[in-house]
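Sequence only, no structure available. Ideas?
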Amino acid sequence: MSDTGLTVESVTVRFGGLSALDDVSLEVRPGEVVGIIGPNGAGKTTLFNVVCGFVRPSSGRVRYDGTPLTRVRPDRLAGLGIARTLQALGLWPGMTVLENVMAGASVRSRAGLGWALSGLPASVRDERALADRAMVVLQELGVADVAGRLPATLPYAIQKRASLARALVSEPRLLLLDEPASGLSSTEMASFGRLIRGLADGMGIALVEHHMDLVMTVCDRVVVLELGRVIASGTPEEVKADPAVTVAYLGEEAGPGAGGPIRVTDDEAPRA
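Reply:
I predicted one. Tokens follow.
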């Protein structure tokens, strides 16, 4: 298999007469972090849903390492090396952190998670391997000490790491992060940013996020969407200096000084 990463080619999505995405193209190569930003309604989550198979594009192609994804079922993505976190945590409240993370590891299990948790003798070795792998990831994220806790009993930032662990335990080569910094304080966000940057050593990462400080700090490249179209793409410095991005975010006409740095608005400011 080639190692070309994610390629989105001229993808258009229409819902009735509305274009949610209009001729969108981008790449996420192995070992880099690509930020996807834009005002509310720009099409960011729709783009992720196309990649994951929840939304079928009206036209265009999506490939991962040369494999077309257009007709791949969402439950097959982990087997291809693709994992995604959600805006909501998506943790099962009645399961411990360890059990939640083990669910993400089941793609590597011969028996499957249901059998592994059933206690049948033939599944004991497989269950132990799942638990060991889950504990390794929790340890790497600094939250192994809460493995036996229920998610609701933990601080939100710890729940975020547990959700990330569930995605990482499948050993993805492409990680899709949907607003990973939402609900985090400035200090928690900075720590999470360092974590994301470190993960890029072993995978490609696409990051949808509203917090500009995080995006401009951790991303190698940034793609800006507005009303479903790509209006800017480049390094964080190039995107910050693009007048079209200033107009999209601040609603201002591009004039003298409009090419200056994007300022974080109230909606985008880190929440304590």
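The chain has two domains: 1-81+172-272, 94-169.
Hope that gets you unstuck.
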